[in-house]
Amino acid sequence: MTFDSRYVALGDSFTEGVGDWDESRPNGVRGWADRVAEQLILADSSWGYANLAIRGKKLHQVLAEQVDAAIALEPTLVTIYAGGNDILRPKVDIDAIVDAYDAGIAKLCASGAAVLVFTGFDSGKSPVFGATRGRTALYNELVREAADRHGAELVDYWRMKELQDERFWDIDRLHMSPAGHMLTAKKVLEVLRRTDAIDLPELEAPPARTRAERLRHDAQWAREYLGPWVGRRLRGVSSGDNLTAKYPVPVHIRPSAGN
């Protein structure tokens, strides 16, 4: 099937859609990029959608494996976010990875596609991931400069303060919940100057916990999510090692039943 317009999404788990679980979708996830594509297609059926993002990918892998593949699809619109998995590593050269990222963004822009990039999330309130806040702030400034230099659109994820609410996050505290993905989709469409029919769900009241209950809750999270996450990194393996892209070529997708 051919399409007059093609949206191609690149990146890691953030763009693949982890946290927005949907067993009816490839890789079992939906995500903000699917939701953006659904709205584009609902407004104009000439759009096709490809998503090359795979969870666990570091920036150099996204650039090496996805950029040329995206350009080969002759995209009208490309969204890309990469570097989050690098920032969480024990050591990272932010200047070096964003230099490489800059070249990738330039290549995508030179293809004639409209390109949209993201800053990183402000994790300052996280007792675990907050330690990377300074790295992310530096990464963000360099990404903003790259976007300005190449004429890319920017979603300033750092400034989406609504996402400081834990209800926008999955139980693993690393990936957004469905509500977080929906909020991000609406922001992307706003930056693209597109309308949407996404209705954010009414969030349940956050659970009231005593200090002891919070400690037990945090300990359970560390056992079930933080420990395995650290273990994978120590072993040099990724949750995405056996996965392929959700939509390697453009397709039509529609909203899931009921939402």
Automatic annotation (TrEMBL):
Signal peptide (from-to): none
Top-level taxonomic group: Bacteria
One MF annotation (Gene Ontology) recorded for this entry: hydrolase activity
Keywords: Hydrolase
InterPro entries in alphabetical order: GDSL_Rv0518-like, SGNH_hydro, SGNH_hydro_sf
Entry protein name: SGNH/GDSL hydrolase family protein
Pfam families: Lipase_GDSL_2
Domain SGNH hydrolase-type esterase: 9-181
